From TrEMBL:
InterPro entries: RNA_pol_sigma-70-like, RNA_pol_sigma-70_dom, RNA_pol_sigma70_r4_t2, RNA_pol_sigma_r2, RNA_pol_sigma_r3/r4-like, WH-like_DNA-bd_sf. The keyword Transcription regulation applies. This is Sigma-70 family RNA polymerase sigma factor. Keywords: DNA-binding, Sigma factor, Transcription, Transcription regulation. The keyword Transcription regulation applies.
Length: 164
Protein backbone atom coordinates (compact mmCIF):
# COMPACT_ATOMS: atom_id res chain seq x y z
CA UNK A 1 0.00 0.00 0.00
CA UNK A 2 1.37 3.41 -0.89
CA UNK A 3 1.79 6.26 1.51
CA UNK A 4 -0.89 8.33 -0.25
CA UNK A 5 -3.40 5.46 -0.03
CA UNK A 6 -2.72 5.19 3.70
CA UNK A 7 -3.22 8.93 4.17
CA UNK A 8 -6.55 8.82 2.31
CA UNK A 9 -8.08 6.49 4.92
CA UNK A 10 -9.27 8.10 8.15
CA UNK A 11 -7.68 7.04 11.41
CA UNK A 12 -9.64 4.95 13.88
CA UNK A 13 -10.19 8.05 16.04
CA UNK A 14 -11.43 10.06 13.04
CA UNK A 15 -13.77 7.23 12.04
CA UNK A 16 -15.09 7.05 15.60
CA UNK A 17 -15.67 10.82 15.76
CA UNK A 18 -17.39 10.89 12.39
CA UNK A 19 -19.56 7.77 12.69
CA UNK A 20 -20.29 7.04 16.36
CA UNK A 21 -23.51 9.07 16.60
CA UNK A 22 -24.92 7.67 13.35
CA UNK A 23 -24.20 4.12 14.53
CA UNK A 24 -25.90 4.83 17.88
CA UNK A 25 -28.89 6.17 15.94
CA UNK A 26 -28.88 3.08 13.68
CA UNK A 27 -28.87 0.73 16.68
CA UNK A 28 -31.68 2.72 18.32
CA UNK A 29 -33.81 2.70 15.18
CA UNK A 30 -33.29 -1.03 14.81
CA UNK A 31 -34.74 -1.48 18.28
CA UNK A 32 -31.71 -1.84 20.55
CA UNK A 33 -32.40 -1.04 24.18
CA UNK A 34 -28.74 -0.05 24.61
CA UNK A 35 -27.70 1.64 21.34
CA UNK A 36 -24.59 3.27 22.81
CA UNK A 37 -23.28 -0.11 23.98
CA UNK A 38 -23.99 -1.63 20.57
CA UNK A 39 -22.06 1.13 18.76
CA UNK A 40 -19.17 0.91 21.22
CA UNK A 41 -18.99 -2.87 20.81
CA UNK A 42 -18.94 -2.48 17.02
CA UNK A 43 -15.95 -0.12 17.28
CA UNK A 44 -14.23 -2.43 19.76
CA UNK A 45 -14.59 -5.32 17.31
CA UNK A 46 -13.28 -3.20 14.45
CA UNK A 47 -10.29 -2.16 16.56
CA UNK A 48 -9.28 -5.78 17.18
CA UNK A 49 -9.88 -6.85 13.57
CA UNK A 50 -7.62 -6.40 10.57
CA UNK A 51 -9.71 -5.64 7.47
CA UNK A 52 -8.30 -6.47 4.05
CA UNK A 53 -9.74 -3.26 2.63
CA UNK A 54 -9.36 -0.17 4.82
CA UNK A 55 -12.28 1.40 2.96
CA UNK A 56 -14.59 -1.35 4.24
CA UNK A 57 -14.52 -0.14 7.85
CA UNK A 58 -17.84 1.73 7.70
CA UNK A 59 -19.64 -1.19 6.02
CA UNK A 60 -18.13 -3.52 8.63
CA UNK A 61 -19.35 -1.25 11.44
CA UNK A 62 -22.89 -1.07 10.03
CA UNK A 63 -23.08 -4.83 9.57
CA UNK A 64 -21.74 -5.36 13.09
CA UNK A 65 -24.36 -2.98 14.54
CA UNK A 66 -27.12 -4.86 12.69
CA UNK A 67 -25.84 -8.23 13.91
CA UNK A 68 -25.30 -7.11 17.50
CA UNK A 69 -28.77 -5.56 17.60
CA UNK A 70 -30.33 -8.77 16.24
CA UNK A 71 -28.49 -10.81 18.86
CA UNK A 72 -29.51 -8.41 21.63
CA UNK A 73 -33.17 -8.50 20.57
CA UNK A 74 -33.12 -12.32 20.51
CA UNK A 75 -31.60 -12.35 23.98
CA UNK A 76 -34.19 -9.90 25.32
CA UNK A 77 -37.02 -11.93 23.78
CA UNK A 78 -35.84 -15.00 25.69
CA UNK A 79 -35.62 -13.04 28.93
CA UNK A 80 -39.14 -11.66 28.44
CA UNK A 81 -40.50 -15.15 27.95
CA UNK A 82 -39.21 -16.08 31.39
CA UNK A 83 -40.63 -13.12 33.31
CA UNK A 84 -43.58 -10.77 32.95
CA UNK A 85 -43.10 -7.35 31.37
CA UNK A 86 -42.94 -4.43 33.79
CA UNK A 87 -45.76 -1.90 33.53
CA UNK A 88 -45.17 0.85 30.97
CA UNK A 89 -44.07 4.17 32.47
CA UNK A 90 -46.55 7.01 32.27
CA UNK A 91 -45.76 9.48 29.50
CA UNK A 92 -45.40 13.10 30.47
CA UNK A 93 -47.52 15.77 28.85
CA UNK A 94 -44.33 17.34 27.51
CA UNK A 95 -43.46 14.12 25.75
CA UNK A 96 -46.95 13.79 24.29
CA UNK A 97 -46.73 17.36 23.03
CA UNK A 98 -43.34 16.88 21.37
CA UNK A 99 -44.20 13.64 19.58
CA UNK A 100 -46.80 14.22 16.90
CA UNK A 101 -49.56 11.69 16.33
CA UNK A 102 -48.36 10.86 12.82
CA UNK A 103 -44.80 10.29 13.97
CA UNK A 104 -45.95 8.00 16.76
CA UNK A 105 -48.18 6.00 14.44
CA UNK A 106 -45.37 5.59 11.92
CA UNK A 107 -42.89 4.44 14.55
CA UNK A 108 -45.42 1.97 15.94
CA UNK A 109 -46.08 0.61 12.46
CA UNK A 110 -42.34 0.28 11.80
CA UNK A 111 -41.93 -1.46 15.16
CA UNK A 112 -44.60 -4.03 14.18
CA UNK A 113 -42.75 -4.98 10.99
CA UNK A 114 -40.85 -8.26 10.89
CA UNK A 115 -37.19 -7.81 11.85
CA UNK A 116 -35.69 -7.98 8.33
CA UNK A 117 -38.29 -5.58 6.90
CA UNK A 118 -37.68 -3.13 9.75
CA UNK A 119 -33.93 -3.31 9.17
CA UNK A 120 -34.35 -2.61 5.44
CA UNK A 121 -36.58 0.40 6.14
CA UNK A 122 -34.32 1.89 8.80
CA UNK A 123 -31.18 1.46 6.73
CA UNK A 124 -32.84 2.89 3.62
CA UNK A 125 -34.92 5.78 4.91
CA UNK A 126 -33.13 6.82 8.11
CA UNK A 127 -29.54 6.25 6.96
CA UNK A 128 -30.22 6.75 3.23
CA UNK A 129 -28.06 3.76 2.25
CA UNK A 130 -27.99 2.24 -1.22
CA UNK A 131 -29.36 -1.25 -1.84
CA UNK A 132 -25.80 -2.59 -2.01
CA UNK A 133 -24.87 -0.99 1.34
CA UNK A 134 -28.07 -2.31 2.92
CA UNK A 135 -27.38 -5.79 1.55
CA UNK A 136 -23.86 -5.68 3.00
CA UNK A 137 -25.12 -4.48 6.39
CA UNK A 138 -27.87 -7.11 6.56
CA UNK A 139 -25.79 -9.92 5.09
CA UNK A 140 -28.26 -10.61 2.27
CA UNK A 141 -28.42 -10.11 -1.51
CA UNK A 142 -29.65 -6.85 -3.08
CA UNK A 143 -32.67 -8.78 -4.38
CA UNK A 144 -33.58 -9.73 -0.81
CA UNK A 145 -33.28 -6.08 0.20
CA UNK A 146 -35.76 -5.16 -2.55
CA UNK A 147 -38.16 -7.88 -1.39
CA UNK A 148 -37.96 -6.87 2.28
CA UNK A 149 -38.36 -3.18 1.43
CA UNK A 150 -41.31 -3.79 -0.89
CA UNK A 151 -43.13 -5.91 1.66
CA UNK A 152 -42.38 -3.40 4.42
CA UNK A 153 -43.76 -0.49 2.40
CA UNK A 154 -46.91 -2.45 1.62
CA UNK A 155 -47.36 -3.36 5.30
CA UNK A 156 -46.73 0.22 6.43
CA UNK A 157 -49.18 1.59 3.88
CA UNK A 158 -51.85 -0.84 5.02
CA UNK A 159 -51.17 -0.22 8.74
CA UNK A 160 -51.26 3.58 8.37
CA UNK A 161 -54.50 3.46 6.34
CA UNK A 162 -56.10 1.33 9.06
CA UNK A 163 -54.97 3.79 11.76
CA UNK A 164 -56.34 6.77 9.81
Amino acid sequence: MTETATMAQPSFADLFSAQYQSLVRLAGLLGADDPEDIAQEAFARLHTRRLRDDGAALAYLRATVCNLTRNRLRHLRLIRLRRPDPPEPARSSEHAYLVSEEHRELLEAVDRLPRRQREAMVLRYWLDLSEREIADAMGVSPGSVKTHASRALASLGKALKEDA
